[in-house]
């Protein structure tokens, strides 16, 4: 189990990480999500021992590994890491790279372990190649094999897919998900891609400016973002200014958007009261075009708008609708002419109100 | 309490242990001797253990002693004008070399490196033999006016400009290696001609490199000991380094006066280094983009006029001093001319015969240089590792010591070593090394470490932090990480740093002149003495023999290492790994 308590790191007057707390049970995969500069990589450096914290501590299975007054050297920690740039030593062949951390084993055992790892990562044919003779995906597999070789308690991944092209990234996403399931290791996976985080992790930890913004299981966090910022990160890409009108029950309120009245779920935590200004957040996937003569449902919001822009995205069109003072982004199966009048619908549950 | 202390001890990282050892070593080798030189000016009794403060009375003596004032003014004159003219020459040649297609481009590069590596006393000796009244210019070429031209302040500025222009040449060449031609295209499309484009676009972008080169020329000239040492019997032009040397070498020996003059020299040099660092920091133009190209030149036809300029320059700057030395080493009588009857090998026979002074001196100097280069390489490698890859809390101190002492001339280093290693405190501890050959090894180390660190920092700065971090996370100890990851990846720089330390140590006239024990022959001193006593044939033959042996050893080592680690050198020249462009290179 990995426990991080009140962990802080400052660089001069800049705060990279401020009082971070979380706990990751053995065998679970946690994705650390956030934009560049939010403290993701700093967190990995502090856990791995490449830097020391200014405050707080990190424990693995109850054993203290770092605090401001004590720091176990990286080479003594039960941790290994897959680096963003893979950090494959260019002068060594794959076999040597993978077996580098196994110096304490005898030659036969080491060779056996390296062969197993090469087979596991489908690298056997490339064992005698240099890193420069491998593709990006193969390089990444070598980096993972090396990290697994020392059988660490905790595996750290620092945006390992960010250097790959889109197609390879999708393939590797499946491979990594499969690997995590088979290995049953405690994994801390840093990424700035929410979809990658969802695909690979059991839990999410969202960082912003060095602070913990939200943590929870992937599904709960995507369904119930705590702030407009987390909602934005989770793909809620339309933001509508509104006012609370009247409560329907403890979770749902009527809201006023321009001259239209809608029903919205109330985000958490919030202190709702009639007339209060709020921001409504909506995921573009949750919006659909209404068909002619469609019967209106009681659990659905309906809005009218004018097409402002229509962009082709390969297999569908992304529309920007003008709602008269606000804008809405949505996906459509058909192209729409700018200026066309449309009616769109989305469920009450899809609309989220925030302070 | 005990438990907490034990935990702290356990927490002491290998980096910290190495860092403490390196810091202590640098303090002893570099900072303490330099500190004593400074302190001695204000606490004249410090060498005897007396800490009475004397104020600035000692420093004020500069204004009362004519020789000191003249030395200071001569030093400032020589270094300032050399900085201007050396930079003009270096920058112009670099622009010619990289902007236009010329013949002799490789010769220009080789000339720059040769002048940089060669000790100034050897260059100066060549110029003196060429210019003296019975020298080659007057006797063989019928140009007696060369004497008056060379042996004047302006002539010395010219010699030093020819010697030190490579600092500017190499700085500007490095800045011109990559080129964004869109900047020039934009200027041309705005109506600017080639000359206006050069003056208003290219040169301003090169200004930081030009200014850096200028400061380096100034620093090297100000601290130069070789030129005044070679001139000693021919033309009186006292400079600060030479006056410091004479204060310690003439009876009565005045260490205190040498210390005061060293302070002046050190203050000017430190100011120049501070200016250099400030220029590097403040005047940096980040003008390179992804569109930068290597080796852009305007036009395709060889420019004959500029080719002639380049080759003529090489013939004068390198050809005259080295050609003169070569000829003089093969002739019997200087005033008889370069005729078949006057050719002889007697000088070479003399210096190479069994039991000769040169053989003894060469053997001693090579041993000292080998020990100094090996030790300084080890220390520099560890210090550069700390500065690049660790967060050791004294990294700032290591960096300051190594940067500020980069410009300390051998004369000051020698004075500092006498003050430190002759101090009663060390004497009482039985550690007084003054008068022992080992002090030359330590001085060689102190002189080589700052330069070797810079060379290694450049190479280590190109290695991603993640390479060493990944090795640490494999559970591998620091020594093994250094040997298996860092050393192979920086082997070329490691080799260069070691060989440069070795080469410069063999020919270091200033340090060896001040510190060599009586009766202990060392190469630069032996050659300089032969020259000053008028044995020109012997001194030039000795120079060429010693240079050939040293260069031969350097070349043999280089070939051996490159052959032994062929694979590593091939890896370096191979294509970078896929995606390596995305690697974030961070510098400590």
Secondary-structure map:
The complex is a heterodimer of chains A (355) and B (588).
Chain A lengths: L1 E10 L2 E11 L4 E5 L6 H9 L6 E6 L2 E5 L2 E2 L7 E4 L11 H5 L8 H14 L15 H14 L4 E5 L7 H18 L2 E6 L2 H7 L2 E6 L2 E7 H6 L4 H6 L4 E10 L4 E6 L2 E7 L10 E6 L5 E2 L10 E13 L4 E6 L4 E6 L8 E7 L4 E3 L1
Parallel strand pairs in A: 3-9, 3-10, 7-8, 8-9, 14-21
Antiparallel strand pairs in A: 1-2, 1-4, 4-5, 5-6, 10-11, 12-13, 12-15, 13-14, 15-21, 16-20, 17-18, 17-20, 18-19
Chain B lengths: L1 H10 L2 H29 L14 H4 L5 H34 L5 H13 L2 H12 L4 H4 L5 H6 L2 H23 L2 E2 L1 H9 L4 H29 L3 H6 L8 H10 L5 H28 L10 E2 L9 H27 L15 H7 L4 H33 L5 H10 L5 H12 L2 H5 L9 H23 L4 H9 L4 H12 L1 H16 L2 H7 L7 H10 L3 H29 L1 H8 L15
Antiparallel strand pairs in B: 1-2
Task: Tell me what you see in this structure.
The complex is a heterodimer of chains A (355) and B (588). By secondary structure, chain A is of the alpha+beta class. Chain A has two domains: 2-230, Rossmann fold; 231-354, Nucleic acid-binding proteins (OB fold (Dihydrolipoamide Acetyltransferase, E2P)), CATH 2.40.50. Chain A has helices at residues 40-48, 94-98, 107-120, 136-149, 166-183, 194-200, 218-223, 228-233, and strands spanning 2-11, 14-24, 29-33, 55-60, 63-67, 70-71, 79-82, 154-158, 186-191, 203-208, 211-217, 238-247, 252-257, 260-266, 277-282, 288-289, 300-312, 317-322, 327-332, 341-347, 352-354. Chain B is built from 28 helices and two strands. In chain B, α15 (304-330) packs across α27 (536-564). The longest helix of chain B is centred in the N-terminal third of the chain and has 34 residues, at 66-99. Chain B is globular, with a radius of gyration of 25 Å. Chain B starts with a helix and ends in a 15-residue tail after the last helix. The A-B interface holds A 48-52, 69-77, 79-81, 83-91, 100-101, 103-104, 130-132, 134-136, 139, 143, 146-147, 149-150, 162-164 and B 4, 7-8, 10-11, 13-14, 391, 464-467, 469-478, 480, 484-485, 488-489, 567-568, 571, 574-580, 582-584.
